[in-house]
Amino acid sequence: SLKDHLDGSYFYARRTNDWSLPSFSKSITIQAKVIHLLIQAGTITERQDFIDEALQTLRILDTEWLKKSRVQISPSGDQDAPGKFLWNWPTLEKAISRELVPFAAAAFSMEKDGNIPSEADPVGAYFRLNSLRSRVSIPELATQLGLSEDECQKTLAEIKTKLLDYRNRKVEPNIESVMNCTDMALILRAWTAAAVVSNDPSYLEKA
User: Fold this and answer.
1) What is the pTM assigned to this prediction?
2) Which long-range contacts link 96-102 to residues 24+ away (Cβ below 8 Å)?
């Protein structure tokens, strides 16, 4: 559940006192740390998909965090309420239509009884809720649903847009905008690492 599959950024996991579930908040430092981690992992294991994910996250950091002066984002009130970051079936049907729910369930590994493992939720506070888990590739999804890859891409984009729009209407965010030296140091490290793996001088110029 670390990645927010609706906007491409990353949560940090801060569990509650009973270790049931994390609070889904985001910070600019987590984005920078994940970028650097993905670049390191992609370089060591020669996985270009890790590096591509890092560079995409760096673009999101530039456009959604730095340009909008965002350092920390967290939802007001109950962070784990359905329709914010965890989803139940009625909320899904309301947000994207009943017809699209089976596709969304296949794309994000969701179940009617929820996909939160009991190890993460020992007291059952989040029974029948789902986190979005993108474990199925587009080719696998196309084969599973009997659709073309292009149809799958378009439908998935439509679902993400509807879910994000629904969440944005339901969530009032707390946003902090004061950046410190640690934030800038981690961003600098992410930019320079991206410059090395991409041979793109624009990252060094930003750094």
Assistant:
1) 0.87
2) 96/159, 96/162, 96/163, 96/166, 97/162, 100/155, 100/158, 100/159, 100/162
